[in-house]
């Protein structure tokens, strides 16, 4: 176990990269907390998701940008070398319904 001297969180891997400090509370703050090179792709993904999910609220949940509409529909998160999309079980239903409308 490795304990980050900055924030006190513990990780399996030594010097595990993580968001160190207070967790961002808005998607804007989340994006700004990432490495510069990944901010623009994150902004683009956010624009696509907002367009696809116009009725969903945007918030931070599980430390990730989240689209919420009664449930968490989908999260996205930046890693060192990729961006992850994490749809919940509702994501397909909502996106399909929208396509038919
Ligand atoms: Zn830390």
Plain-language structure description:
There is one protein chain. With 101 residues, this protein is of the alpha+beta class. It has one domain (23-100): Aspartate Aminotransferase, domain 1. The protein is built from 3 helices and 6 strands; from the N terminus they run ββααββββα. It has helices at 27-32, 36-52, 90-100, and strands at residues 2-3, 10-11, 57-61, 64-68, 72-78, 83-87. The chain has a 4-stranded antiparallel beta sheet. A hairpin with a 6-residue loop joins strand 1 (2-3) and strand 2 (10-11). The longest helix is centred in the middle third of the chain and has 17 residues, at 36-52. The chain is elongated. The mean pLDDT is 88. The chain binds zinc ion.
N-end to C-end Cα span:
51 Å
Enter the CATH topology name.
Answer: Aspartate Aminotransferase, domain 1
The largest beta-sheet arranges its strands as 3-4-5-6
Mean pLDDT rating: 88
Describe the largest sheet: 4 strands, antiparallel
Q: Classify the secondary structure makeup into a structural class.
A: alpha+beta
Q: Low-confidence parts, pLDDT < 50 over ≥5 residues?
A: none
Tell me the overall shape.
elongated
Please trace the helix and strand order, writing H or E for each element. Answer: EEHHEEEEH
CATH architecture: Alpha-Beta Complex
- Indicate the proportion of strand residues: 25-35%
Secondary structure: number of strands: 6
List ligands, each type once.
zinc ion
CATH class: Alpha Beta
**Number of structural units classed as domains:** 1
Radius of gyration based on Cα positions:
15 Å
**Amount of helix:** 25-40%
So how many helices?
A: 3
